[in-house]
User: What shape does this take?
Amino acid sequence: MAEKIISNPQVLVNDELILFVPNSLKYIKNTAKTNVKSLTGGGNSVITVHSKDISEATGKVTFSIKATSRSIELLDIWANNTAENVIEISSSNGDIALAFTGMSLEEIPDLEFGADAEIEVTFLGDVI
Assistant: This one.
């Protein structure tokens, strides 16, 4: 069976369709790092133990937008909606359907204006 590349996903933030720059969408379901340590009983016996560092575990969604009047308005809304933003990512063929809840805008990004200017937006929140 052939696989299809997900090249044009849809992004909703708080149920509003977001117009974003193609190929700019990235997400991480869980940023927790895995620690791997070795233990020995002497001689040639070595085993590894694995653990997750959940102290900084978050979900993360990043995408770029253009500086339109609506996108600038949305940045203010998202920034004031701390821990309440919901981001949904889906594909037209149904291969992917993710919902990130409890999301906050990491910081208000620098606004850059111009035909080619892009504003990178990063949300952090609950792990999925």
Notes: The radius of gyration is 19 Å. The chain has one helix and nine strands. The chain has one domain: 10-125. Residues 69-80 form the longest helix (12 residues).
